Amino acid sequence: MNAIISFQTIRKTMVYASVWVGFAIVHALVMVPLVKVPFGLLLVDGFIFSTLFILIEVMYNILIEGKSSSITISPQTVLNYISLGTFVLLLWLGSGLFLLNIFFLHTDFISLMPTIPVRILIGVLLFTILLMYSHFISGKQDEEEEPEAAIEEENEPNALPLPDEQLKDESEMLERIAVKSGQKIHVILIPEIFYLQSDGDYVIIYTEKGKYLKEQTMKYFEEHLNKTKFVRVHRSCIVNVEMISRIELYKKQQQMLTLKNGLQLKTSVAGYKTLKLALQLK
Asked: Residue 129: its pLDDT value, please?
């Protein structure tokens, strides 16, 4: 697996750092009127709980986000989230108090005990915000990311190339992609690609052997990959249709693609229409 330092990675790191510092400072300020503990120790307290929350949020993104196939609110869904929230809260609070007990003097640690109800309230608010962001805000962003593509799809319902156009462009189709990584050059055969994802001025190519960063645009790959086999299902994603094992309703008008390697990708409305044409679905 190649180590890729990309624009998206840097941006996420900056966001996490901002949240980490901001939460620690706010946490310390909230605790000031509640306990008689030096402000420096309260900052350390804030950074400990902030770090734990960031770690839990990362784990949530890896294990939970994108695995749900529906946003439908049902009693079972509510129960699942309550159970998950309780577990996360206990893990966050218990780990934080354990670390405070290790790093703080016993008298300072005892002084912080009356703040446990406030910490529980903070944890509940943070978990609620995390769920709202994951299921509503990020989902809305996904839907709004491709307004231009949706308009183009309406104006050109037959997005796949005509036979004559396809034959004309066959000589320009890519058969392999060379990617330089350090002192190595990897040659990726087109059928081995699962999907391509945009990352600023680069494209990440995902294969069974790993992922590779190529300095190229999505438009280039969209024009030089066989349109009957590689479909731009999202503004930021081109998928190899032969690597799709399942298509499910995700939420509203979005579909979730499950690839043969288990990875899942969301489609836009316009992207799914193009995919249906490629798969000859009605």
From this structure: 79
